[in-house]
Amino acid sequence: MPINFLIKIIKAINANQRPGEMAAAIAIAWHLALMPSGSGLWWVLFLFSMFLRINFAIQAVFLAIFNLFTYLLDPWIHSVGYALLTSDALKDFWLTLWNTPPFGALGINNTLITGGFVLGFVFWIPIYVISVKLIQFYREKLHKLIAEHPLTKAFFQLPLIKNIAEAYQKASAISNHL
Amino acid sequence: MAQSLPKLFKPKFSDKDFQKKILKKIFIPKARELVLKIYKQDSDGSWVLNEAYATKPLTIDKKEFKAIQTLAKEIQKNSGIFDFSKLILVGLVAAGLFVFVTFFLDGLVRRLTIDALQAIFGARVDISSMYVRPWEGKIYFSGLEIADRENPMTNLVEFKDLQVDVDLGALFGGSVLLNRIVAREMNFGTPRSYSGQLDPSPQPKTDEVQDGTTNTAQESQQPSVDFGALLETPLDQLPFGNLITLTKKSPKELFEAEVAKLQSVTLTQEINTKIQERQTFWQNQVTQTQNQLRTSNERVTALTRRDVRQIRDLNELRSFLDQVKQTTNDIQGFETSIRQSVDGIKSDANQINQWRNQIQEAIANDWDYLRSLISLPPGGPVGWVSALIMPEVNRRFGSQIRLARRGLEIARAIQATSDKKEVQPKPERRGQDIPFPTARYPKFLLRLLEVSLGSRNERDLTEFLVKDISSQPDLTDKPYMLSFTRLNQNKELNVTALADLRTNASALFTAKTLMSNEPFALPETFSAAGLQNFEGLATWEAEIQFLSQNGLRLAVKSSILNPKLSWVEKNEVTDLVDRILNAANGIRANIDLKLQGADRSFTASTNLDEPAKQEIERWAREKIRQFETNLRRELDNRLAQYLNENRGLLRSFDGSIAQINQAPNQVNEFKKQLGDKQKEVEERIANWAQDSIRQNLPPVRLPF
Asked: N or C: at which end does chain B have fewer Cβ atoms within 10 angstroms?
């Protein structure tokens, strides 16, 4: 399974897939990672992402990567969530939302859920833009350098990697042909 | 050799279309180079295929053709952020589901229900109508009949209505809100108009069988409710037992039973003994005094009878004078002794008078005690009727108080369990839950649970109701309610319990009971009271409340309509009761008891108040007056011998007093006689020399 994900990611990066699809997958993975997994709002966002034209392999891989360290941000997320949920200015808004089905079941009264959700939104566009730029930079600048580098070629001569390389070649048909 | 390019790559594009449909969907440089290799731009700005790619069949190699095919697919995929294909798919599924639910679900559920129940019970199942509203969380069955496999012309069970109503909106809001769970007019063993066998062979309706079945079923469902046994409390323990005592015991029996407790008889005996002792003492004193008086009288008489003129000797006169003086001195000493006796007997007389007062006081106390045994209890007729009802109330509703306490414990346990669930910690990344006030629904709410057996129209119904069971009663702002109703022809029993767990509830638990039109049955105890039969329709309405501060409130309303009494033997008491009931036109009584901290009150009222007050008081006072007369006679008879003895003693004592009181007069007489005698003797001595000279000298003759 990890190899499949890896192949799909390599294929997507090197194929003519729109950079926005991959960047959106990374941004949504970041968004999901900021919230406690399994909460109602987490599932709503996750199901919503199913209807988007994004790269799910990238979303899954980056979600796993982000989850490795986002818990370190919990104090900060909690502070933001607490500040928002206890704000006098937003009190009526939260009360209305809390008492409107089905929002009451989404756990919006939890500081980590709301804090993570809001911070995910705040960082969504920067992460999206940065991801797009990085993908474009890779495709235009790095791809050729990496593909033709001697170390890369030596690496792909390893028996285990050969299989991956075959898949890579297969998946990157356009690039190989061109 | 490839045949033709993918359809995406049309032979000619306007510049605008080419930019929009092709170039804007290419994101890698080599793909752009490939496209620009396929197309060339004309002088008018339009894009057309190069000659190498415009021919049919194509002349390019297979490898390049595959690259073009792959590129075309990827360009087609890059068509916006939303995957409309998935959205359309979900939309179609939703639309299909909607159509299915709207047009086919009812029939499907009906068929599945019938099949499932027929498979379970092995007999025909009929449903008059039903509907399912999954969006509203409702499912409803009407006229659900399940036939009896063993008796196909009879239903095993039949429901008039069967419905479940769940609020899905609240469910999405994290609350379980059950609006209604109703199984209404459930009946067992009802007749069918056609066979309930699964093999559809309709049988003609047989009136005889049906009627017989119906009657048997109705008879078998007749409840054997016995609401008789009124007043099992022994009569002697009733507060108005005194009145009954008057009709049961004679004054002599009552007096003999109570004589050991009377003080006047014993006290009279004791005082008579003391008087007897004093009388004996004073009688001895009187005897001694009389002896002394007699002796003194003899001495005085002897002295006063002697003629001092006959005494010639001076010495003899002087000796006689000394005797008189000595006797006078003795009499004076005797007088002192007598006066002491008079003082003593007067003191004893005062003591005896006090004893006599004690006897009178003891007699009065005993009489008060005896009268108390036959007097009316405090509170008047209202209190008597209340006291009559209270043992019955305790008997009838004592179990409900225990049930109410149990219900309160269960309700509290539900709330405690609900609270525990709410505070269960999450394993990780918990954050902090901000406790927003919930304005709509608690976590769990059951608005109505209704199960009923029988039919209200046929006046044969057993119904259970549960309402407003909530994990947060403050939110629903209603107490829990449980209700049981039993309706049988004209009789109705309804028990309603309210458990109020709201924060500032004034009454924690309330139990209301209504029993109406219950035929009255005669208890054994009343037979003893001479009541042979008591017919009437009784209605009981009781409300028990557990208040804050461990308080309790009990309100009872009872009524007996058309009371008809027949007696084993008519007497004045039965006449009295008949008169009261006739005047009151039925029996109705209200009792209100409240115990809460310092607030303690008891009120009772009945429509019998006025007639009972008039009739009972008149009868009771007349009865008591007669009884008092007889009882007083018993007391007087018992005291008579002691009082007679007492009076004899007092007469003797008075005689002694009179005798002693006479002694000083006699002594004074003695003293007077002795004084006169002493004076006479002293004159005689003073005249003695003159007389002596006159007797001894010769007479002198005067010369002239």
From this structure: C
Q: For residue B396, what pLDDT is reported?
A: 56
Instruction: Name residue B122's amino acid.
Output: G
Please give the Cα distance from B546 to B406 (Å, whole number). Answer: 12
CB hemisphere CA count around B324 (13 angstroms): 23
Q: How far is CA B24 from CA B18, B36, B76, B514, in A?
A: 9, 13, 11, 83
Amino acid B596: pLDDT: 78
- pLDDT tens for residues A38-72? 888 999 999 999 888 888 889 999 999 999 988 89
Across the beta sheet with B12-13, the strand order is B12-13, B47-49, B39-41
Distance CA B535, CA B71 (A): 102
Q: How far apart are CA B437 and CA B605, in angstroms?
A: 48
* φ/ψ bin of B161: left (φ > 0), alpha (ψ from -120 to 50), beta (otherwise): beta
Looking from the CA of B666 toward its CB, the CA atoms found within 13 Å total 20
B541 within 8 A of B558, measured Cβ to Cβ: yes
Residues 563-622 of B with CB under 8 A from A: none
Which of residues 56 through 85 in chain B touch A, CB cutoff 8 A?
A: 63-64, 66-67, 70-71, 74-75, 77-83
Decide: residue A135, CB within 10 A, 0-12 exposed, 13-18 middle, 19+ buried.
buried
- Kindly report the backbone phi and psi dihedral angles of residue A124, in degrees, each rounded to the nearest multiple of 5, phi listed first: -60, -55
CB contact at 8 A, B271 and B651: no
* A20 contacts chain B (CB < 8 A): yes
Q: What is the spatial distance between Cα A96 and Cα B438, in angstroms, rounded to a whole number?
A: 10
**pLDDT > 90? residue A80:** yes
Question: Could you tell me the pLDDT band of residue B37, with boundaries at 50, 70 and 90?
Answer: confident
Let me know how long chain B is. 704
| Cα A169 to Cα A177: distance, rounded to the nearest angstrom | 10
* Terminal-residue alpha carbon distance, chain B: 238
How far is it, in rounded angstroms, from Cα B457 to Cα B474?
Answer: 38
Distance CA A116, CA A135 (A): 26
At residue B601, what is the residue type? Answer: S
Confirm or reject contact between A137 and chain B (CB < 8 A): no
Cis? peptide before A102, omega within 30° of 0: yes
Give the residue carrying structure tokens 């006078």: B328
* Euclidean distance between CA atoms B294 and B290, whole angstroms: 6
Which among A51, A101, A113 is the nearest to B173, CB-wise?
Answer: A101
Give the mean model confidence (pLDDT) for residues B675-703: 78
Write out the DSSP string of B434-463. --PPP-S--SEEEEEEEEEEEETTTTEEEE
**Could you identify the residue written with the tokens 């919230």?**
A35
Cα torsion A173, A174, B1, B3 to 10°: value is: 120
CB B510 within 8 A of CB B363: no
Place of tokens 């939302």: A97
State how far residue B460 is from chain A, nearest Cα, in angstroms. 43
Global pTM exceeds 0.90 = no
- Each residue of B483-496: b (16+ CB within 10 Å) or e? bebbbbeebbbbbb
